[in-house]
């Protein structure tokens, strides 16, 4: 099997981030021990995708702990709290970021000495990354069972290795199904405004040698009507207890279209994306991003100045539009509240 792309790594006590804003044409890495650079990388989507954001944040805290030069336990704790707060303020929607920060905060809350906390924070960050790699494999193997009959599978945005630091979730399922010899092809949506589908999913699929067709977002409905799509699978940024799922803007339209055309709509995500503290998607904060992401394309202005722009980064298919959710613990079809509670035990 080919080596996976590594969106984020911990190397020689530095956080190493593959700058995804430059893909697919340039593979350049940010190497830093400064959490502020990681915050900026998350904000400008140099590292993106819910699990990869969490891992980058974990390594940013590890770097902060490793490089602490002050004196005393209190000063160390204050420093780590400041780093955690800055990372928490980077992007609001992906549950994984907060799940990671809560894990790291617990270590600081319970820590005794600087040396112990430093070691524990670095270990925990590496552990979080390793867990994601294993989780991706489970999700991919379980999810591949959904595609026994093959066909054209549509995926939106990028939920591959670049988004998770492992094998991928939604794209991991697709890669696994293909590796098992299932007769699948892929339809990748370009994913406006930042083109994660065209730039990143197409890049990953090409590297993996999986046959695919790139379409613009607005082509999906017409393709479904013509019988050119047999299933949809996407990742998730945050899933509420009832199964309502926030994911890249455009996911809601795809779920509605899939229902209208009798096509299954699947979500693949780790349990670390599930937020049991919220009952429904109503409580999910949807990130609003800068207008220039819409008014420019590849750095060129395509809209006259003064035009009012909206740019929500995510939307939310309600649970009734979702045929099944695949996590590392199994495939759930409806009754998500019960299913999540059970799989947490
Ligand atoms: O804005 P992005 O590129 O971070 O959005 C990413 C997505 O919407 C992904 O589908 C989601 O994070 C799942 S990644 C496994």
What does it look like?
The chain has 345 residues and is an alpha/beta fold. 42% of the residues lie in helices and 17% in strands. The protein has 12 helices and 16 strands. The protein has helices at 35-43, 50-66, 73-88, 95-110, 114-144, 161-164, 170-179, 196-208, 220-225, 251-260, 292-295, 336-344, and strands at residues 8-11, 14-18, 29-32, 151-155, 184-189, 212-215, 231-234, 238-240, 245-248, 265-268, 274-275, 296-297, 300-301, 314-315, 324-327, 330-332. A 7-stranded mixed beta sheet has the order 6-5-4-7-10-15-16, sandwiched between helices. The relative contact order is 0.12. The model has no long low-confidence stretch (mean pLDDT 97). The protein binds 5-S-methyl-1-O-phosphono-5-thio-D-ribulose (MRU).
* Ions, cofactors and other bound molecules: 5-S-methyl-1-O-phosphono-5-thio-D-ribulose
- Give the distance, in angstroms, between the N- and C-terminal Cα atoms: 33 Å
Q: Please give the oligomerization state of what you see.
A: single chain
Please count the helical segments: 12
Average pLDDT over all residues: 97
Largest sheet: 7 strands, mixed
Q: Which sequence of strands runs across the widest sheet? A: 6-5-4-7-10-15-16
Q: Output the radius of gyration.
A: 20 Å
- β-strand percent reads 15-25%
Structural category: alpha/beta
**Low-pLDDT windows of residues:** none
* Number of separate strands: 16
Q: What share of residues is helical? A: 40-55%
Shape: globular
């Amino acid at each position: 099997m080919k080596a996976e792309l590594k969106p984020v790594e911990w190397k020689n006590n530095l956080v190493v981030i593959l700058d995804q804003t430059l893909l697919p044409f340039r593979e350049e890495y940010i190497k830093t021990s400064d959490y502020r650079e990681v915050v900026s990388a998350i904000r400008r989507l140099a590292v993106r995708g819910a699990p990869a954001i969490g891992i980058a944040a974990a390594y940013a805290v590890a770097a902060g702990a490793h490089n602490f030069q002050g004196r005393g336990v209190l000063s160390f704790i204050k420093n780590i709290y400041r780093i955690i707060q800055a990372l928490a303020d980077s992007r609001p929607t992906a549950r994984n970021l907060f799940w990671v920060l809560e894990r790291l905060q617990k270590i600081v809350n319970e820590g005794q000495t600087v040396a112990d906390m430093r070691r524990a924070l670095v270990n925990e960050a590496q552990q979080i990354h390793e867990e994601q790699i294993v989780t991706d494999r489970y999700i991919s193997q379980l999810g591949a069972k959904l595609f026994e009959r093959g066909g054209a599978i549509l995926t939106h945005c990028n939920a591959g290795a670049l988004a998770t630091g492992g094998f991928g979730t939604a794209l991991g399922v697709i890669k696994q199904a293909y590796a098992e010899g299932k007769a699948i092809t892929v339809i990748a949506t370009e994913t406006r405004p930042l083109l994660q589908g065209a730039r990143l999913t197409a890049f990953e699929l090409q590297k993996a040698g999986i046959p695919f067709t790139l379409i613009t977002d607005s082509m999906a409905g017409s393709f479904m009507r013509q019988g050119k799509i047999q299933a949809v699978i996407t990742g998730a940024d945050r899933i509420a207890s009832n199964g309502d799922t926030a994911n890249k803007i455009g996911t809601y339209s795809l779920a509605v279209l899939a229902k209208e055309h009798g096509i299954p709509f699947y979500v693949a995500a780790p349990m670390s994306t599930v937020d049991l503290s919220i009952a429904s998607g109503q409580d999910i904060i949807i990130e609003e991003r800068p207008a220039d992401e819409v008014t420019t394309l590849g750095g060129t202005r395509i809209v006259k100045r003064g035009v009012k722009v909206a740019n929500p980064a995510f939307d939310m298919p309600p649970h009734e539009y979702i045929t099944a959710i695949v996590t590392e613990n199994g495939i759930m079809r409806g009754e998500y509240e019960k299913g999540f509670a059970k799989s947490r035990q």
